[in-house]
Amino acid sequence: MSAIAAPGPIRLHGLTLGYDRHPAVHHLNGTIPAGELLALAGPNGAGKSTLLKGLTGEIPVLDGRIERPGEIAYLPQIDAIDRSFPVSVMDLASMGLWRRLGPFRALRRTRSAVLDALAVVGLSGFEARPIGTLSGGQFRRALFARLILQDCRTILLDEPFTGIDARTTEDLLALVHAWHGEGRTVVAALHDFGQIRSHFPATLLLAREPVAWGPTLRVLTAENLARARRLSEAWDEEAPVCDGARHAPPRADAAAHDHARDHSHDHDHSRPGDREDAA
Amino acid sequence: MIDLLAPFVEFGFMRRALAGCLALSVSAPPVGVFLMLRRMSLMSDAMSHAILPGAAAGFLVAGLSLPAMTLGGLVAGLAVALLAGAVTRTTMLREDASLAAFYLISLAAGVLLVSLRGSQVDLMHFLFGSVLALDDPALILLGGICTTTLVVLALIYRPLVIECVDPLFLRSVGRAGGPVHFAFLGLVVVNLVGGFQALGTLLAVGLMLLPAVAARFWTRELGSTMAVAVVIAALASFAGLSLSYRLDLPSGPAIVLAAGALYIVSMLVGPQGGLLRRLRRPRHLEA
């Protein structure tokens, strides 16, 4: 893939996402600059997947808004896909061309592009294999081939390396770095802090509330991680309706990401009855 | 061979029955293949019940009139399909559950309507159809349904496959998912209404699903599965009509039983996971 024009930033304004009125991502402010390679970290239930779904528009926004830079490619967690359906690896990868081809335009002319994408992810020779016969790692590679063909400037990955071996992870991480080198914005929800530290320059640590956002080494501190664990565990059936007044943009770390966004919220976490304090 | 064709050469009503069933054999099985692959095989059964109140309402208004009953069936079936589809896409309820809810409501209403005026004979007609009494409008209807189905399937084929494999992906790249989903449900209803005329509500599902399920034992690839299903359905139509003529059996059940027999044969000897292949364990390969 050739170098591409710089994508626009993704801006989040007081973004609240959730289910059943309970926020899973609560009042998130900030900017993901164009070309950023950002890791989303946090415990299970911290809202990583929810944030990615919100960014793609898959789930509605409860409050606040998102400025999207245009088309977004999204790799969901695997279990949404019916692997027993009789389509080939070629078919699956070719789905990435949907925006360009739509329902009718011929696939014949794009065949070489699809084969190239499969070669990049190391699946040459697998074109005709039914997707049901692939191993977990091979299947993930096929999905990355589809992402390549989508050719979007913003790429969201939801736990892309969960359950696959070191070799495949290495290959796919190299691909992620290549995307970063081409100036694409990549946001990935990850659990492996070692991986984040060595491959992702920026991290957003989520625990429903944003805990810290900025350069990875300053975000993934023992203190922040402990705070994230504490915050993420509270789900209160009796939670009061949020008035939004006490939620300011995230802490100082995020300043670099949040220039020019002047929010009038005060930052008062000391009021009695605060949910986090109770947790 | 001549002997096999004799009843169709000799009698116009047999020719009409065969033509109608062949039209249905071309259109219903491909729809059934998608239903099966979406794990919604029983959905067509539910839909066939959902058609009943519409057909019954048509019957109440106009008597045994094909246009009225067909129109009623279409309206009732589409209403149930669209409502169930809409509920599935907007609430947390899964497709099978939302469909079950609506088809039960519809079926109860249908039975109520039939019992308001119908006699036993009418009920038998609803359930088992009248393939040996297909008149011109009925044949035109079946031909039209066949044509519509093939054209619509061709139009929505690519997004329908994507929607089946990875609905989330289709939603993330465009808005085709909803319309395609509803168009497909519409095809199910239209084919069941066509089958209902020829085979009756209970058996219409048979010609849609049995060939599709049987075809799965012969091939792994999607396009050829549909082709094999069509061939099996055509064979079943021919065999069923012949048997019903020779042995004086009701034709609807005979056709579906013929499809059932082909299914059992496929299940036993089919090269893709057929039972006999499983018993004889082949030597494994190097890699």
UniProtKB/TrEMBL annotation, chain A:
Disordered: annotated span: 238-279
One Pfam assignment: ABC_tran
Entry's family note: Belongs to the ABC transporter superfamily.
Ranges of compositional bias, category Basic and acidic residues: 254-279
Top-rank lineage group of the source organism: Bacteria
Domain ABC transporter: 10-233
Keywords: ATP-binding, Ion transport, Nucleotide-binding, Transport, Zinc, Zinc transport
Organism: Methylobacterium persicinum
Keyword Glycoprotein listed: no
Protein name: Zinc/manganese transport system ATP-binding protein
UniProtKB/TrEMBL annotation, chain B:
Transmembrane residue ranges: 17-37, 58-85, 97-116, 137-160, 180-210, 222-243, 255-276
Keyword set includes Transmembrane: yes
Topology term for the membrane: Multi-pass membrane protein
Top-rank taxon, per record: Bacteria
Stored Pfam families: ABC-3
Entry keyword set: Membrane, Transmembrane, Transmembrane helix, Transport
Subcellular location: Cell membrane; Membrane
InterPro entries: ABC_BtuC-like, ABC_TroCD
Family according to the record: Belongs to the ABC-3 integral membrane protein family.
Name listed for the protein in its UniProt record: Zinc/manganese transport system permease protein
